Structure prediction request, 498 residues.
Amino acid sequence: MQKRFMSIWFRHLTTDWLSLRRPELKDVPFVFATPERNRIIITAANPLAEAQGIHRGMAAADAKALTTNLQVLDHIPGKEAKLLRQLGLWCIRYTPVVAVDLPGGLILDISGCAHLWGGEREYLKEIVNKLRTSGYDARAAIADTIGTAWAVARYGKTTPIIQSGQQAQALLNLPPVALRLEPIILEKLQKLGFVTIKSFIQLPRTVLRRRFGEGFLSRLAQALGVEDEFITPLVPPVPYTERLPCLEPIRTVPGIEIAIQKLLEALCLRLQSEGKGLRKAVLKCYRVDGKMVQAGISTNRGSHSVSHLLKLFQLQIGKIEPALGIELFLLEAPKVEDVDALQEKLWAGKPGLADTALAELLDRIAGKVGPERIRRYLPAEHYWPERSIRPAISLHEIPETKWQPGTRRPLRLLRRPEPVEVMALLPDHPPKVFTYKGRRHVVAKADGPERIEREWWRDKGEHRDYYAVEDSDGQRYWLFRSGHYDAAPQWYLHGFFA
Prediction:
């Protein structure tokens, strides 16, 4: 079977990606730039910037001289490779062999695939239209060789589909840069007046080798199909998926539980053998009437415990409506993580955040009240109360600093201090009476003041003098006066002690 290749070129890959994330940039000329030899060099420009004469490799200072509203953004290292990998994995639906072609391209081995879409023209149109609809400015070409497809996709001006055996004819009117040559070789060709490939393609190989080297001949031979060129295809991640078809439609809760248990047993066996733990799972139930219903769970730490995961799913079974019956169950685990089995055994039965039983308890509570209602806070290196704590990302995150044991802080801190009316003796005595939300509190005991200065490098404002007070009912509060005492000082309630 004759080999056929498709080359896809994303003319504005990174700028298209940013325009999709920030739609307000679509009507603004902007570029990515990075420092290089004491200059800021442009690495990518969007179409509006290119229309004003700005291009890759230009100094950002020169580009700003051409337009008044140019936005210069920092170059993101490695972003092109990540985007191309994601786009390449998406293209696997059209062919099993897809390779990343840096910078800004993909190579597809489409041998034996195009007929499934009605031919190469419909095949190419399907892929390019889908990419353009997604927001990427893409061009593509098909040929017998990778080199010819690459050249036509970037420099071709006629048909993007080169018939088998016609690669030499397709290359004749293209510039030498279409052969993917080194800059030094391109400079030599320009000095000799070789502006198209046809101006040197008929020269003897010995002459070309002597002037331009073996690499030049290799690129030319690859484009013509005389020399083979190999690619490294992308390997998609193996999905953690289990299927369970049913001989008879399942309509009862016990039947759904049995199906979930069988799926979990198969999935957890695989996860355990690979040293993985499930963090998120989705159960998809395909009904007889053609509709699909689903339920999902998530965990605080990776788990391959069938009993624990089954309990989480049991809390979600009420959301599954079987209707006339479910004929296919599909369990997917889109998020997994590495799990150290020896570490779990070491900590089993011991108290603390590393205890597996605690994580499983939190999972069950989250399944009932919602994961957003469970919070864990860690200390932050700030004296200003609002900034002295931060939410933890996960259950096993280690704090970067220790809690300050010498400072008295309330168990519940208000998100924003609330104003109160206070009666106090002069000049810096604690409050005697304060009114909060219409209720009058008589202060029986008080401790303070504790002065906390504002972090001047972050914002401007007055310092605070805090008092820990206890009213006649035994309730304890954290009050502060903003700034120095004056004729009408402003007081606030900031927290409640246990």
Remarks:
- The chain has three domains: 1-236, 241-367, 412-496.
- The radius of gyration is 33 Å.
- The chain has a mean pLDDT of 88.
- Residues 411 and 498 are 6 Å apart (CA to CA).
